[in-house]
Structures
1.
Amino acid sequence: SWSSAKSVTNALVGIMVKDGKLRVDQPAPMPAWQSPDDPRRHITIENLLHMSSGLQSEGSATGHAYWGGIDTAKAIATTQPEAEPGTRWKYSNYDTLLLIRSIKEVIGKEKDYWLLPRKRLLNKIGMRHTFPEIDPFGNYILSSQMYTTPRDLARFGMLYLHDGVWNGERILPEGWVAYTQEPAPAKVNADERDWGYGKQFWLLGRDPRVPGDTYTTAGARGQLSTIVPSRNLVVVRTGLDPRGEDNWDQVEFVADVLKAIP
């Protein structure tokens, strides 16, 4: 799935909020950051959801975290600040991994942590062909490393289309889907076709080709589940564009689907 996994992390954070184990306005529960003179102790869960931690980052270039065999939970906790939390938007795999580390900290028991995605989300909505990977030390790498199928990505999009409710059961807390779509304040770009950013989802509504409420998961080379609430529609595309990830135009694809559906 590549970075479509980040949106799954959004759902897991929402489940922790629903359980009362996390609050979006609370500092991320990183034990290594708790010294009174450590500026990182002011980074909130919401800052991480918005990709606005202000921490140093390699952006999406974190191959050593994905394939290098490192302990990702320890490595990300050593990341140093570059900007005040909430003042800078920078796409960062580490911000997502810090959310996963936060979940691990508040759950406590490793077995409960390992069972969380399958028990509380994937099995609930029928994503039975989706497999999130762990590193050699048992940490989920849910900024990217998740195997899935188009039908499972469609199920995930349908969960958000239906406000976090599946077959009458509320999976995500009430109001979480609307909260997810609130733009990250630090992401500002004048280009009307530039994608905005919510909370581990991209916002497509600035592009005039699609309705203003359109938002999407997004993984490299075109792994996407795009939600259009005003049209009661989820549009999924997976595959490999050999020209590179910048050449697949999901907005144009969604616009064509919208034209084809009365």
Note: The longest strand covers residues 224-228.
2.
Amino acid sequence: RGAGNLNLVSKSGMTIGNVPLTLQQIQEGTGINYTLSVANTFETMGPSEFFSDKFSALFVRFTFLPIKNKSTWSEPTFVIHNAAAFGEMQNRGDHQMFDFKTPDNGFYESGFIADYLLKFGPLGFGAGVFYRYGPYEFAETKDNFFYKVSVRLKFL
């Protein structure tokens, strides 16, 4: 039966030509001021924090098998989350009026989610903690931690 399920998602994109910043590749961040965990996004990156004309991202989640108990309201399921992105901007000089970052040096994050701590039929609620590290981590360690609520719907 194994220990769980491995989910790998790779995303890449490239913008050709000299286009406005809003039409460049935007890495999908749900970190700052967003307290809901969203799979296959950067949980610690702010929305529109990073732009690039070429990028590649990898999302890896391992979901352990649920812990079976006699409870009908809880079925804890633990998830390990890792994500990384690399990107570059060739025409950065064309966007001087905007303050943005490009993940040239690599953006990294990891996290741990406890799903289905509360369970109502197929609907489950949990919590997660994520950590941002590497070249784009914040100066204060406490600012690199992000806490989120997990809402999952299990289809049979």
Note: Residues 67 and 103 are 38 Å apart (CA to CA).
3.
Amino acid sequence: MRKILFLLCCLTVCLFAGPKAEWIIYPEDLSEGVNKERLLRTEFDVADKPIKQASVAYILDDSGYVYVNGKSVSQDAPRKSDFPGCYSFDVTGLLTAGRNALCAIAINGGGSGGSILRLSINYKDGSIQEVFSDTTWKTSRVKTE
């Protein structure tokens, strides 16, 4: 049953995150990362034009937080479960024109923390910008500004 639910969860994130998003996992021996925070981060530019709506969809394995420009997209405590869930939040008010940062803090009860994410920005002029998790993201064991 868990495998079926996990597969459904993965299918859901594919619908949210699209085929361009990749799982990113902190590169370490799995036993070293058990129940420890692993940080995954990227920077991206936002155009200097009005944003209609922006959202981030993600799965964290097994739990954790997602931040845009240092602000949590959800004030909830990390969710712990036998399988990760897919979440989506509006982040329109957290973005600014110019350089922005997207960070995930993943905590995995069975190994190294990881995530799959998609940030979608819909501008008022009809254009769309997307940021996907991929292997270019920086990973760390230590929180930084």
Note: The helical segments are 2-17.
